[in-house]
Amino acid sequence: MRVPSIPLPVPAARAVVRLTLRPALGPTVPVRRQRRLLEAAAVALPPPRGTHVVATTLGGRPADVVSAPVTDPDRAVLYLHGGGYTVGSPRTHRALAAHLSATAAAPVHALDYRLAPEHPHPAAIEDAEAAFLELAGRGLRVAIAGDSAGGGLALALAVRLRDAGGPTPTALALVSPWVDLTLVGVADDPRDPLLTRDWLAACATRYAGPDGPPLDDPALSPLHADLAGLPPTIVHGSEQEILLADVERVARELERAGTPTTYRRLEGVWHVVHLQAGTVAPATEAVADLGRFLRRHP
């Protein structure tokens, strides 16, 4: 059922996030319950009218192709959703994907990659790599975008593709990317209405798995990877999020490595406010900024 989108002022939207999503992402809430709660909350964030959604498979995994009415069929955006590698899906990010498709003028392929703890590392990056290679194998020009854990996954995937010596993305769009699972220097901030350090720490442990690599391994924490030779990249960080220092640090490291990098700090908003695109004005504009960047780097 489509729920009409009601414009919300920023303070009201922040209160909704704090009162509904933050409790759902408590470290003691069972993961399966977290997933159900996020899926239910996403109903209040419908895509724009005219959005076309097709369920498909990509790299052997379920995916949604989300398209605005006018897109370039020779281009694609592979979208990797956030959720601490443990929650989230193409459905929870459908509004964001739809607005991105409209402003990037390209179909957005939202991948339902495998989640921890059932499927720890390297399941997610293997799924993402297979999805990218399938799109590239169709002759498409493919950009990669992602938010939070999906942003970290997008960056780790770009490094993996570069090292493999095969096709690579045309551009990267990283929204508040979680790039250092060690959480060194990350502390709770009362201004962040969504994230807590305890929840992130629980997600990091689940994603690494009992027999996985250490949390500072570049495959898990691409902040510690060699970031040279990557495509043009845009990074968004939000003023009111506990990951801001790491987001800004990875933007500096990308620049230092010689990767063409555009960094935007979004004032007065929180972690991945982009999810409220179409409902909260700064979120809509933030996604439009990503889309304009991807259009300039096709």
Summarize the SSE layout with pairings.
Blueprint: H1 10-24, H2 31-41, E1 52-58, E2 61-67, E3 75-80, H3 94-104, E4 108-111, H4 123-137, E5 141-147, H5 149-164, E6 172-175, H6 197-208, E7 233-240, H7 244-256, E8 261-270, H8 281-296
Parallel strand pairs: 3-4, 3-5, 5-6, 6-7, 7-8
Antiparallel strand pairs: 1-2, 2-4
Characterize this entry briefly.
The protein has a single domain (10-296), classed as Alpha/Beta hydrolase fold, catalytic domain (Rossmann fold, 3-Layer(aba) Sandwich), CATH 3.40.50. The chain has helices at 10-24, 31-41, 94-104, 123-137, 149-164, 197-208, 244-256, 281-296, and strands at residues 52-58, 61-67, 75-80, 108-111, 141-147, 172-175, 233-240, 261-270.
Structure description:
It is a single chain. With 298 residues, this protein is of the alpha/beta class. It has a single domain (10-296), classed as Alpha/Beta hydrolase fold, catalytic domain (Rossmann fold, 3-Layer(aba) Sandwich). The protein has helices at 10-24, 31-41, 94-104, 123-137, 149-164, 197-208, 244-256, 281-296; strands at 52-58, 61-67, 75-80, 108-111, 141-147, 172-175, 233-240, 261-270. The chain is globular, with a radius of gyration of 17 Å. The termini are far apart.
Properties at a glance:
single chain; 298 residues; alpha/beta; Rossmann fold; eight-stranded mixed beta sheet
